[in-house]
């Protein structure tokens, strides 16, 4: 509705003198003030509107159109002009046809993003007759390119999804904590050989798994800002993996973590909290990949500029047809997987200025390499 009202307002105002009139006095000053008001109003509207006189001079434009057609701003006057080349020729030709016929028309125009697919813009061109002292012109009501509209819709959906997911994660986490806490208390009431203790442990493990899924969902939808500081990568890696061993019951699953660290500290910029989260994901994947148990090798490598944490398991590996999808959100080869673990891990590492590389051979295990800049 705002765009339509702006077009009608633009039509009415364009009946006033649009170019500098040879007359002087109050009329000219008033028309200039009206034109400035029109320009200011259109610039604030979230729509595609372009107002031109018959010579192709830009009288007013919205911000979206200025970006879409690559309008150039003249420093001396502050006015916008059409860019030279295909865009200007196409718009002037369309105006000539519309003003000649005196009827609105619908056409497709090139844009400043013309090298990209679906970047052509659809425009409805309305002729505007001139007044006794002015010049005829045209109003272009421009639709966003299909690609841009799709991007805008995707951004809106992503923002809505993030809000809903964050709310759901918050609402689920509170009762999960209550269930897990009472289940832990109940477990202590039964002796080790009591069958009921086994079933209570099942509840505790399921709650822990759900809590991890909620954490990953929250990290996926929310912006992440790492609080990096210089720290010894060897120390932080040892602490993080030893915690992961205990959390996921590596010994109970016949999985042995084998560490190989340099004797000297290796300093990098790291957020210890997010690093722990990354290590939990990598460790869980390694343990789950070795259903019959096995070895997980963890080592720290360093040269003059970079340091890397390398994790190698002896698990099933990744099928070749899935190799390119491992970082896709909600993609998982595990029946109970969320498909967010590696995506979130990559996001957290990026926030610390680090990178992750994964290579795998089906049946021969997986190699995960996380690379940091040394300080």
Describe the fold and architecture.
The structure is a single chain. By secondary structure, this protein is an alpha+beta fold. The protein folds into 3 domains: 2-144, 2-Layer Sandwich (Beta-Lactamase), CATH 3.30.450; 146-223, Helix Hairpins, CATH 1.10.287; 224-375, Histidine kinase-like ATPase, C-terminal domain (Heat Shock Protein 90, 2-Layer Sandwich). It is 44% helix and 21% strand. The strands form 4 sheets. The chain has a 5-stranded antiparallel beta sheet, with helices on both faces. Strands 9-11-12-14-13 form a 5-stranded mixed beta sheet, with helices on one face. Helix 1 packs antiparallel against helix 2 (26-43) and helix 5 packs antiparallel against helix 6 (195-221). The longest helix has 42 residues, at 146-187. It is elongated. The relative contact order is 0.08.
């Amino acid at each position: 509705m705002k765009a339509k009202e702006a077009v009608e307002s633009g039509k009415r105002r364009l009946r006033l003198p649009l170019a500098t009139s040879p007359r002087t006095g109050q009329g000219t000053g008033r028309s200039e003030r009206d034109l400035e008001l029109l320009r200011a109003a259109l610039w604030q509207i979230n729509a595609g509107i372009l107002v031109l006189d018959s010579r192709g001079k830009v009288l007013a434009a919205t911000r979206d159109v200025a970006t879409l057609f690559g309008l150039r701003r003249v420093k001396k006057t502050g006015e916008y002009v059409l860019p030279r080349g295909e865009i200007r020729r196409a718009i002037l030709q369309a105006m000539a046809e519309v003003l000649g016929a005196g009827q609105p028309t619908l056409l497709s125009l090139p844009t400043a993003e013309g090298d990209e697919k679906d970047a052509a813009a659809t425009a409805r061109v309305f002729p505007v007759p001139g007044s006794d002292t002015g010049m005829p012109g045209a109003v272009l009501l421009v639709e966003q390119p299909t690609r841009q509209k799709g991007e805008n819709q995707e951004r809106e959906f992503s923002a809505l999804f993030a809000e809903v997911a964050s709310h759901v994660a918050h609402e689920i986490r509170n009762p999960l904590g209550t269930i897990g806490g009472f289940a832990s208390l109940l477990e202590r009431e039964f002796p080790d050989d009591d069958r009921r203790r086994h079933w209570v442990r099942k509840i505790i493990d399921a709650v822990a798994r759900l809590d991890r899924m909620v954490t990953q969902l929250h990290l996926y939808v929310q912006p992440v800002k790492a609080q990096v500081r210089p720290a010894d990568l060897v120390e932080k890696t040892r602490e993080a993996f030893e915690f992961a061993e205990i959390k996921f019951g590596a010994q109970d699953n016949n999985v042995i973590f084998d560490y190989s660290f340099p004797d000297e500290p290796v300093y990098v910029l790291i957020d210890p909290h997010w690093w722990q989260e990354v290590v939990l994901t990598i460790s869980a994947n390694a343990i789950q990949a070795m259903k019959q148990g096995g070895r997980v090798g963890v080592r720290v490598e360093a040269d003059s500029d970079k340091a890397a944490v390398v994790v190698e398991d002896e698990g099933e590996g990744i099928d070749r047809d899935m190799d390119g999808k491992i970082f896709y959100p909600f993609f998982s080869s595990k029946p109970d997987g969320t498909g967010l673990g590696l995506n979130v891990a990559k996001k957290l590492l990026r926030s610390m200025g680090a990178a992750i590389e994964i290579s795998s051979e089906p049946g021969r295990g997986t190699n995960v390499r996380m690379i940091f800049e040394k300080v």
